[in-house]
Amino acid sequence: MEDRSAKYRAFYAQLICGAAKAADPRLEQAFRTVRREPFAGPGPWSICLGGHPYVVTPDDDPAFLYQNALLALDPARGLNIGMPGAHAYWLSGCAVKEGETVVQIGAGSGYYTAILAYLVGPGGRVHAYEIDERLAGLARDNLKDVAHVDVRGRSGIAADLPEADVIYVCAGAAQPAPEWLDALRPGGRLVFPLAPEGMYGGMLMITRPDDGEIWPAKFLSRAQFIGCAGLQDAEAGRRLGEAFTKGWEGVQSLRREGVPDETCWFAGEGWWLSTAPAPLPTEPVRPHADITQI
């Protein structure tokens, strides 16, 4: 069965990374190398395309795991291993490098933690946070042999987050947590779904400059996630829903100072997104308008 799984993984990795136009060959190799079977648990499995009902696979043939679809961890709660093609696109956008330190918020059973661990290599580090006790236990067990990963079974909104080059968030939020911004090193990238629970939002990448309070920012795509506990706000969600009807692709910077002006796309408490560029522009990333539900 392992030989068949390897064949499926090779095709799957090539397909999703080709669609994501991933420039780094290590990303395809990560998806080719990391087996989904341990993270999915025993089959049959429940899978679906975003927004549609789950379909139960006929049996536990691993071919069913290597699809560009959501894979249920807890169908009753809508908890999934997210859509691989979307994650390939987002990971390509934030360009995780060997030797970097990554903080992952919302590790689930650890599949994308393992992908991140492959990308940073043994010289890097992945700190994975998962607030759900059962899932944290699964992730810890699944990743026990990966020495440069640690799984923390608690919230990823805390003042004691380790300094990071990349913070990769897999739970929707109505705002960027200040703790995430503060933990980024200069040049570090925060990638998170600006998407309160139950709302289609967008995967936003924010880059910390060497100094100043105007940070390069851009949406990589539309997205919907399970909500991040502690970062929900019904009124902000309503206003974000309105904002996404107009020109989300034009966002170019996050401002942590000043009064919102005519370039303001959306304003939160102590921060706002602007269509004006930051002083140091980031490399262009092609926005992807497809809505992806995770």
TrEMBL record:
Sorted UniProt keywords: Cytoplasm, Methyltransferase, S-adenosyl-L-methionine, Transferase
GO MF, any single term: protein-L-isoaspartate (D-aspartate) O-methyltransferase activity
Localization per Swiss-Prot or TrEMBL: Cytoplasm
Protein EC: 2.1.1.77
Top EC group: transferase
Domain of life: Bacteria
UniProt-listed GO biological process terms: methylation
Cross-referenced SUPFAM superfamilies: S-adenosyl-L-methionine-dependent methyltransferases
UniProt-listed Pfam families: PCMT
Family: Belongs to the methyltransferase superfamily. L-isoaspartyl/D-aspartyl protein methyltransferase family.
Protein name: Protein-L-isoaspartate O-methyltransferase
